[in-house]
Design a protein that fits this description.
The structure holds 2 protein chains of 2 kinds.
Chain A (H helix, E strand, L loop, with lengths): L2 H19 L4 H5 L8 H5 L10 H29 L6 H11 L1
Chain B lengths: L4 H26 L12 H19 L11 H14 L1 H4 L8 H5 L17 H14 L15 H13 L5 H8 L4
Helix pairs in contact in B: 2-6, 3-7, 6-7
Classes of the chains: A mainly alpha, B mainly alpha.
Chain lengths: ~100, ~180
């Protein structure tokens, strides 16, 4: 096989692989993507909110999920700061209170 | 030698057809047609292309079955994030009336934050939007997302488009944010 054929054999699959990585994967953006500004929800007039509206439900879902993620991240950070890798004492108390 | 009336008529038609063919080929090959997006079509040409496009999409989309759960919060969240990444630069978002793309593309992409549908026209609008997102539109700047996005993901975007015109900037930001 001459040199140009070798180049074709190597480059064609490489090009195909690179094309497949162009596909737009949501998971690629999770860590770098902009976070929801849930503080805006606190400023909204809750009496006028329709909790059956899918838009409202989606916003609640997004902000609850984000707050939950931040709380978990905070716990992890506190554990790291305490130096022993265990969750902080208040987290432990919460854990116990669920058992009662 | 004299031609019969029928033969004379046919010869005349053939001559006109040949002339049109040669004329069209000359025009196409000459490069005289202005191809720049900043030089707009004649209004009649634009109207013809618009009718051609709309009739074609209407026919092709008429058999598409619209899912019953387009108003689910999960679809809004998934579709919102994709809309923001893939569509907002051309079709805009609440609080934004123009962008480089919306000004530079020809035909100009519709501002989807301002197009709301009457409930009785919703099904046709959903079919049409799904088809356009999946297949794109030739020579318009609208890409076909079908080769890289499955149908469910496209329906999520259709679901988001239903509610987009009524969203405030804050609601849009929360629904489209992808970060965790």
């Amino acid at each position: 096989m001459n040199r140009s054929k070798w180049i074709t054999v190597i480059l064609a699959p490489a090009a195909l692989i690179s094309v497949s990585t162009w596909a737009h994967e949501p998971s690629e953006h999770m860590k770098t993507g902009e976070k929801a500004d849930c503080s805006a929800m606190h400023d909204m007039d809750h009496s006028k909110m329709d909790m059956n509206d899918p838009v409202m439900q989606a916003m609640m879902q997004k902000c609850m999920h984000q707050n939950h993620g931040e709380a978990k991240g905070g716990e992890k950070q506190n554990a790291e700061h305490s130096g022993n890798g265990r969750p902080p004492s208040n987290a432990k108390a919460d854990e116990h209170s669920h058992n009662h | 030698m004299s031609l019969t009336p029928l033969k004379a008529y046919l010869a005349g038609v053939a001559s006109v057809a040949a002339l049109l063919l040669v004329g069209s080929a000359t025009f196409v090959l000459s490069g005289w047609y202005p191809m720049g997006a900043d030089e707009h079509h004649h209004p009649l040409t634009y109207k013809l292309i618009t009718v051609l496009r709309e009739r074609s999409i209407e026919r092709a989309a008429s058999d598409i079955v619209v899912p019953k759960d387009l108003d689910s919060p999960d679809r809004l969240l998934a579709g919102g994030a994709d809309y923001n990444d893939m569509c907002a630069s051309c079709h805009l978002k609440p609080g934004k009336n123009e962008s480089d793309f919306s000004q530079g593309l020809y035909p100009s992409p519709p501002n989807l934050t301002q197009i709301s549908m009457a409930p009785n026209a919703m099904e046709k609008a959903d079919q049409r939007r799904f088809w356009i997102i999946k297949h794109g539109i030739k020579a318009s700047g609208m890409p076909a997302w079908g080769p890289t996005h499955d149908d469910e993901r496209i329906w999520n975007m259709v679901a988001f488009l239903q509610r987009l015109p009524e969203l405030s900037q804050q609601q849009y930001q929360i629904l489209t944010a992808r970060g965790e």
